[in-house]
Request: fold
Amino acid sequence: MTEPVVVVGGGIAGLAAAWQLKRDGMPVHLYELDERVGGKVRSSEFAGQVVDEAADAFLARVPHGIELATELGLADQLISPSARKAQVWTENGLMGLPEPHVLGIPLERASAEALLGVEAADALEADLARTEPDPVRDDDTIGSLVRRRLGDRIHEALVDPLIGAINAGDTDELALSASSPQILAAANAGPSLIGSLRRMKAGSDADAPVFHSFVGGMRVLVDALEASLEGNITTGVGVDALDRLPDGALRITLSNGEVIAAPAVVLACPAPAAAALTTQWSDASTDLDAIPLVSVTLVALAYPTGTVDVPSELSGFVVPRTADLRITACSYAMQKWPHLGGDIDLLRVSVGHGRDQETPALPDDQLIAVILADLEAAIGITAEPTDVRISRWEQGFPQYVVGHTERLGHIEGQLNPDGVFIAGMGYRGIGIPACIDQGRSAGVDAILHVLEHRG
Reply:
């Protein structure tokens, strides 16, 4: 009998890899150093509710999350936000994001002018009138492309806070090719970025859900995967070493001292951990260790119901990096997800990004003071919260800087021929659907490697 393929790491990518391997009939075993699986997909009790500590939803337009939920029998449990409008902090306070928009990029002159003035509106019109191609460059960041096409104002006031909040990054540093496939596709589709985005928008259903989640939080997906992999998971045991033997076999040394063999390994752990395990493949290890990481802290705050006085259609707001506030985003969770309402108003506030690593590292009392001051400035709350939960994700968000895609090619070019595959948010997308896709793809690649080398 074939020895099990080993999956290192029990985050959503590792669980998806193990699910794919088991589903396709390949023996598999997953090792997770923590006592629980799920990684950054974590939902826990807070103020009498189950509230996510990191991502609270996944994109609906990317199919991998919905497909996995359906395969696990969870399709009928999917919910979507009821509040779908968001605001952005400006020098004049909070204002609505331009409608329509794509990732903060306004698609109509009137909405751009109302929010940002004539100069931004003229930049939009100039882009629409463009007839000469402006090819995407190999070293383009999100910022360099948007600034070149639409000017600094649209980028700094809208695109950077929105995409930066998703990636916890500085969009002037994030590679366009690796960090924003939607803008990349639009930029490559014709001379006008706005024209391409308009065509994309016209082809989508405006009433379709943008995000999905579960009443029990994103942990519902993790719990279903864990249940489906009963007997294939060991928690509280990590992997200390990975070696390729002269005969091509892979030897794994576990943290409990046990040594096992595997025909293939999926490294679904953070890039630094993967780097430590791949020192025998020195170039890959060096490249893995070079992937930049930033820290983010997410704070949940509970207030008596009625304390947060904002229009019911709003889901929250984002903050430009150039603003005088230090928070990066605030979600009105009780309006976004009505099951989290009831007798509390619930906020989820994020701090930390590529240009600010001081705020997420503040001691608890100083951090809360900063957040409360910003909330008072933004939405006028002066009351003290009745409950607070701080979730710190130190070095938890990888940054896809220029050269990231090429770096991945070098890593996989060295590891994959020896049956070692990588998956996770450090590589090809930080969102839950992207991590699911990476995990499942790594599982398929591991199966193909085993079949090719069997016998």
User: Anything to note?
Assistant: The two ends are 11 Å apart (CA to CA). The chain is about 35% helix and 20% strand. The mean pLDDT is 95. The first strand starts at residue 5 and ends at 8.
